[in-house]
Write a structure and sequence with these properties.
Strand content: 35-45%
Keywords: Membrane, Transmembrane, Transmembrane helix
Structural class: mainly beta
Shape: globular
Low-confidence stretches: 1-22, 270-305, 307-323
Number of strands: 22
Strand order of the largest sheet: 2-3-4-5-9
Oligomer: single chain
Length: about 325
């Protein structure tokens, strides 16, 4: 019990989110209609269809859903995956399934499998590649692919800041593929995706999302996310729209509105001029979530809050000592 309490206390500052901007409710696109989709833990969108998979505990199956939330396709690729946590695009008509979860940090290697998806049912094991971390076993829930190169990336899920790892440009089926760390991302990463230009990506946690330029991983913005039961899915379509999914039976898929300045940044255009007279009341401006200021420019609230939490953690650690 003390160990679980300690984990919960350490997680609280991050679960509360990394920005102070108020969360927008988002726009509901549909709700999953299939009762078998109970823990949507990965999301891909292409050609007007949405692809998702359940979290660990399910057999290896990938659901294809139309714009009304109806399941129109199902791929069964494995009977006993270890801990499936994510999906990523893998070329037309295929997705990467990320069997990359490792809560206990005990797996020697994790794996990704390229499986076919589309309308109708199919049973196909796909092609599996093993991945190993350079610094030992690591938990992860985020799998992404660069749309310009097809290269695979994994973001770790850790309390004190995540790491983005790059897979080899050519994957081997015969031997483990060594991941290479290339930069930092937000803590408690649960999913992410590249934008179509390959020059930007977004990584989410349960309550916030951070947008980065690529490959330098400069943070562009931090945005609060709508409240979800347990948000673990994110996808970006070919128009740069961001979609969110969550665990829970019949859970909704939301489109995340992006404010004008962020959309301009992602498009590589300069920020639009500020109005000099009446305010802009267009839906784009009034309905979108605000982008929080860069955390580095306002460190004091975080430093004070972090110090308080460290004191609590220290007390709990002391209580865990054998007596």
């Amino acid at each position: 019990m003390p160990e679980r309490l300690l984990a919960a206390v350490v997680a609280v500052p991050f679960v509360l989110g990394l920005s102070s901007a108020p969360a927008d409710s988002g726009s509901e696109v549909f709700s999953f209609q299939d009762p078998a989709i109970v823990e949507s833990s990965g999301l891909v969108v292409a050609d007007g269809l949405f692809v998702t998979t359940n979290d660990s505990g399910d057999t290896g199956q990938v659901f294809v859903v139309d714009g009304q939330g109806r399941t129109v396709g199902l791929t069964r690729w494995s009977e006993r995956p270890v801990d499936v946590e994510s999906l990523a695009p893998a070329g037309r008509g295929r997705v990467w399934v990320g069997d990359i979860g490792d809560n206990a940090a005990a797996r020697v290697s994790v794996s990704i499998t390229r499986v076919p998806v589309g309308r109708g049912g199919r049973d196909e094991p796909g092609t599996t590649y093993d991945l190993v971390y350079p610094d030992g076993a690591t938990d992860a829930e985020t799998l992404m692919t660069d749309p310009t190169t097809g290269r695979v990336y994994v973001a770790s899920k850790t309390f004190f800041g995540g790491t983005l790892y790059q897979a080899p440009s050519r994957l081997s089926e015969q031997r483990p593929n060594r991941l290479r760390p290339i930069g930092d991302v937000l803590p408690i990463a649960t999913d992410g995706a590249f934008f179509p230009d390959g020059r930007h990506l977004v990584v989410r946690s349960y309550t916030s999302a951070e947008f980065y330029s690529f490959p330098d991983l400069t943070r562009i913005a931090t945005v609060d996310l709508p409240a979800q039961q347990q948000g673990e899915g994110l996808a970006v379509d070919d128009r740069g729209r961001v979609f969110l999914s969550s665990e829970g039976q019949y859970s909704p898929v939301l489109e995340l509105p992006l404010d004008r300045a962020l959309r301009a940044e992602l498009a590589g255009a300069p920020d639009p001029p500020k109005p000099t007279s009446s305010p802009d009341l267009s839906p784009d401006a009034s309905d979108a979530p605000e982008v929080s200021p860069d955390l580095d420019s306002t460190p004091w609230p975080w430093l004070i809050g972090g110090a308080a939490w460290l004191v609590v953690v220290a007390v709990l650690l002391r209580s865990l000592r054998p007596r």
